[in-house]
Design goal:
With 175 residues, the protein is an alpha/beta fold. The protein contains six helices and seven strands. The two termini are 12 Å apart.
């Protein structure tokens, strides 16, 4: 049994739902997985854990700065044990941008942190126009217009491939 720490950065809550599914998968495999919001726990003690997972969403083309700061500040501890990173973004809804090697946000992130976690993942996120405030809804609609995505302001679409999330969770358990 491993003790797995799953840290997350989320804007609208979808990334935490993905992390909860990873926690379930780990629990079913006999591991103990703990969830923690990275924003609220920047100095979390990593010593008690055997493995780490960091999940971060994209908003307007970027991960939150504190995600990169955490990964850089804890690089030695994260490299010393099995570590996984995944990104959640709407761009990953497209087949040609749905892998860590083809997703521009994941490749850019890995370059910025200066090392490669043992396991990388990318998941398409959720589009939920009714939940967004006026500015987010309209900016995201404009981005969707440019990228040929849904623009109807009543649209709610979960693009996440949940079987892919579960497979990632199983891979975490094996590293």
């Amino acid at each position: 049994m491993s003790k797995i720490l799953i840290l997350y950065s989320t804007v609208d809550g979808h990334t935490v739902r993905i992390c909860e599914r990873l926690q379930q998968v780990a629990g079913q495999a006999g591991h103990q997985a703990t969830l923690a919001a990275l924003k609220d726990n920047p100095g979390i003690d990593l010593a008690p854990y055997d493995k780490f997972v960091v999940g971060a969403s994209i908003r307007y083309g970027k991960h939150r700065p504190y995600v990169i700061q955490f990964m850089r500040a804890n690089r030695a501890a994260l490299q010393a044990k099995p570590c996984a990173f995944f990104s959640v973004n709407i761009v990953a809804r497209k087949a040609n941008k749905s892998t860590p090697e083809t997703n521009p946000y994941v490749t850019k992130f890995v370059k910025r942190i200066g090392w490669r976690p043992k396991l990388l993942g990318v998941f398409a996120g959720k589009l939920d126009y009714p939940r967004y405030d006026f500015w987010d809804r309209n900016i995201i609609r404009f981005i969707m217009l440019l990228t040929r995505g849904p623009t109807d302001p009543s649209t709610v679409v979960d693009f996440t491939d949940w079987k892919q999330v579960e497979a990632f969770g199983q891979a975490i358990c094996k590293v």
